[in-house]
Structures are given as C-alpha cells and as structure tokens.
Design a protein that fits this description.
Length: 121
C-alpha cells in the first residue's frame, strides 16, 4: 500500500475529480478539511485549507497545491484513457511522450496537482 498527500483548495471538488474521472473510491471524509480516496493499493489523502497539512511552516512558507512531484497511474490503454479524459474536460500539461520504458502524459487535478498516466511498452 502506498500513500500520497495532495494539498487541494476544495476537498469536495477533489473527491469528485478522483472518484468520477480516475476510478478512486472514497474511504473517509472529515468535513471540508480532509478526505481519503483509494485505488487498488494506492491511498491518496486530500488535504484542504482547513487541514493541519496546510498550516504555515515555521519559516513562514505556506504549503500549496501544484508542483511536479506526482503519483503515477499505470494503464493498459493510455490512448483510450486520454481520449475519455479529454472528452470529460480534464486538463493536460503535455501530449503523450514515449520513452525507453513506455508512454506517459501528465494531467492536472482541479488544483493543478500533477498525475502521470503511464503505459509500459
């Protein structure tokens, strides 16, 4: 089991995105502050502005959504999944690229957190 935490601006919107677009299921929700969604052996913690994870650091920096670290979802048919997500209005950072191990593309959740979709070759 792997667990990731993403900061989000709206927990309800994040739950809807991950469950409706990427096949996650809601495991737990603590009001508008925090939720846990899961897919297979992956647990994703969605931390809103009211969560403890969003509190400023001692040096004054404030945690925020986005960035480049990401979770990777492995798929059997990347092109079909990308087409369905584009049809649903999901935002992508790039087009499908091919490397030595497979093909990948980056999409964004509603808060700009990146998710890599990957298909091995």
């Amino acid at each position: 089991m792997a667990t990731f935490r993403y900061l989000v601006t709206d927990v309800e919107a994040a739950i809807a995105f991950y469950t409706e677009r990427l096949g996650f299921t809601l495991r737990q929700q603590m009001g508008p502050a925090f939720a846990v969604v899961a897919r297979a052996d992956l647990s994703l913690w969605l931390a809103g502005p009211r969560s403890s994870a969003a509190r400023p650091m001692p040096d004054g920096r404030t945690p925020e959504p986005g960035g480049w670290n990401r979770l990777v979802l492995e798929l059997d048919d990347l092109e079909a999944e990308v087409a369905a997500l584009k049809e649903a209005g999901v935002s992508f950072r790039n087009d499908i690229v091919t490397g030595p191990g497979g093909k990948q593309i980056l999409l964004e959740d509603p808060d700009g957190n990146p998710i890599e979709l990957f298909q091995a070759v």
